[in-house]
Write a structure and sequence with these properties.
Bound molecules: protoporphyrin IX containing FE
Radius of gyration: 24 Å
Shape: globular
Mean pLDDT: 85
Strand content: 5-15%
């Protein structure tokens, strides 16, 4: 027994030494903080890792490399460099970390798939459907405005003029919009089934937590994913994926049995039509029932929590900054009035709302480091060596709070994006949806949702803090969890206008 223990100990020491020497020899040569052997700078990082990354960039520059426990990483704090690596260099720096072979037909969405033909086909199909929603007789505005009116009725009937925490109801709204687009169904605000979706989406977003990621070697992550070892966040993410995949399976079966008669179409209808048409034409395709499950998981995981969280941030910021809410309402009154609902076309003539949207995205940075990329091959950048498998972290929060670009970055001030004539000035440096080849495929959808929702909210309600609370004193310090930067819990009163 003692001999086995000695052999094992020697084997461990030899394996660790080989691992250590190999990682030293194949190191990224971009300079950066040294950190400790094996763990690198990981133990010195605080919970809001992106703030520490921004601090380190003051010392080491706009791009630096570092070791984060099990991984080598490059942290980038400047738009031009991210643009160079993520857009101009084709696929080299656009891989993801999950390395499952394409032939394994299990439900993996394109969000976690590595850069290649399968990712391209799934992604371009999804963008096409999301951006050109053909909802039959209804327009996207109809769908959204209808959901806001459900929200309005819910607020008035359930809370009257009393302050309440709007988070759940707003998550529910966004959940219904996605459910309608993907599965052509919506749920009542009292239906607790919706919590399963919103919780599933939140759990999935949470498991991309960099601390789980870098702290747990990838073999353990895979074991955790299949519940061989219990890692809470990974276990939750598996439950979430299973929930969405099961739902998707049931919906596909229903859609195949019952053809729509009223001309309304959803994501599943369009997907099944595409698969049939490819079969008829004998065209090679990666689109199968499993890829549909993967895409649906992506849409809920990446699209629900992010957009809903941003909407909740808008409600908090407009309640806290009453002057901003007033200016926004003045513009809504001038351009849309109170007798009709907003349309997407109105956006063209609304400078203040565009400045507000850009400033809120900058100030909040709801996905502070986007989703990490990985280098697909050994590569070179400006004479430096970057080994295959290096993580690339674009610090969007850091870029959005860079005082060289945005003076007084911690002040929330939509006016910074208006010129002297009051016209909106678009900034290429505000990039909440990412940069380059893997830029968020839901950007157009999210921007449409947020515009219609926010304008209708100020057209319908005067949002006020709870009685006795000074709006200016409302806490607006974000809480970082997983991939998202969430608003703190707050209460507001929605007074009908
Ligand atoms: C405020 C709302 C949103 C924000 C701020 C946001 C932000 C982002 C960011 C930063 C990325 C990573 C980009 C990269 O890796 O370079 C991303 C990826 C992604 N987003 Fe969004 N997103 C939002 C809404 C949505 C919506 C509505 C959907 C779909 C319904 C969606 C689906 C996805 C998917 C599938 C990916 C992975 C893309 C890929 O790997 O090719 N997102 N998003």
């Amino acid at each position: 027994m003692a001999t086995i223990a000695i052999y094992l100990a020697v084997a461990c020491v030899v394996a660790s030494t080989i691992f250590f020497i190999r990682s030293r020899l194949r190191r990224c040569t971009i300079p950066g903080p040294k950190g400790w052997p094996f763990v690198g700078i990981y133990p010195s990082l605080g919970h809001e890792i992106f703030k520490d990354f921004a601090k380190l960039s003051k010392k080491y520059g706009d791009i630096y490399s570092c070791r984060l426990c099990t991984a080598d990483a490059i942290v980038i704090n400047k738009y031009e460099i991210v643009d160079d690596l993520f857009r101009k260099r084709q696929g080299t720096f656009n891989d993801r970390f999950i390395k499952l072979p394409d032939t394994l037909d299990i439900p993996i969405g394109f969000g976690e798939l590595h850069y290649g033909d399968k990712w391209k086909e799934m992604r371009s199909f999804t963008i096409n459907v999301l951006n050109n929603q053909n909802l039959g007789d209804r327009t996207f505005e109809d769908l959204l405005n209808e959901e806001v009116s459900h929200f309005r009725n819910y607020v008035i009937n359930s809370h009257g003029q009393k302050a309440f925490k709007p988070k759940r109801a707003l998550l529910h709204c966004m959940g219904n919009i996605l459910l309608t687009l993907v599965f052509r169904k919506r749920m009542d605000y009292k239906d607790s089934e919706m919590n399963n979706y919103t919780d599933a989406a939140h759990n999935l977003a949470q498991c991309l937590d960099p601390f789980v990621f870098f702290g747990v070697p990838s073999v353990l992550q895979i074991l955790g994913r299949f519940n061989i070892i219990p890692i809470k966040k990974l276990r939750l993410s598996q439950l979430a994926l299973d929930k969405i995949a099961t739902e998707c399976h049931a919906e596909i079966a229903t859609h195949q049995k019952v053809k729509t008669l009223d001309g309304s179409r959803d994501f599943v209808d369009v997907f099944l039509e595409e698969v049939d048409s490819k079969k008829e034409k004998n065209t090679k395709t990666f689109l199968t029932e499993n890829t549909l499950k993967g895409i649906a998981s992506n849409l809920f995981a990446a699209g629900l929590d992010s957009t809903a969280t941003m909407l909740i941030w808008f409600v908090l910021l407009l309640t806290k900054h009453q002057d901003v809410q007033k200016k926004l309402r003045e513009e809504v009154d001038a351009v849309i009035g109170r007798d009709r609902l907003p349309t997407l076309k109105d956006r063209d003539s609304m400078n203040y709302v565009k400045a507000l949207m850009q400033e809120a995205h900058r100030f909040v940075s709801v996905a502070p480091m986007g989703m990490f990329h990985m280098s697909a091959t050994d590569a070179e950048w400006q004479g430096y060596f970057i080994p295959k498998g290096t993580y690339l972290i674009a610090n969007y929060w850091g870029m959005h709070h860079d005082e060289r670009l945005f003076p007084k970055p911690s002040e929330f001030n939509p006016e910074r994006f208006l010129n002297e004539s009051g016209e909106f000035v678009k900034s290429k440096y505000v990039t909440p949806y990412g940069i380059g080849k893997r830029i968020c495929p839901g950007e157009v959808l999210a921007q449409r949702e947020l515009f219609l929702f926010v304008t209708q909210l100020v057209q319908t309600f005067n949002m006020q803090p709870p009685e006795g609370v000074d709006a200016k004193n409302m806490n607006s310090d974000g809480v970082y969890d997983g991939v998202g930067f969430f608003p703190p819990e707050f209460e507001a009163r929605f007074l009908p206008l």
